[in-house]
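Journal club prep — side note

Before the paper discussion, L.F. wants everyone to see what a predicted structure for a comparable chain looks like in token form. Sequence:
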Amino acid sequence: MIKNDIALAIEDRSEFSRAKSLLIVETILASLKDALINDEKIEIRGFASLKVVDKKTGYGRDIRRKKQIKIKRGKRIKFRPGQDLKNLT
């Protein structure tokens, strides 16, 4: 599913035009992105929660060169499905 598919679903379920539906989707995604950039937790009840977590420095293995490599510290986004989503699978 891509942004346009979500906009089409909004268009089908409401009286919004396709352009307005796409604007709604882009606005929601921009808000989610801004929240994650500011290290805020996002919780969409019944669907999922997202939060930025720190990734520790660690070591990995370069298979081609058969060497141990250092993995830098960083951040990642942790996705945790909500109860309703868990019950579907």
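L.F.'s comment for the group: The first strand starts at residue 42 and ends at 44. Keep this in mind when we get to the figures.
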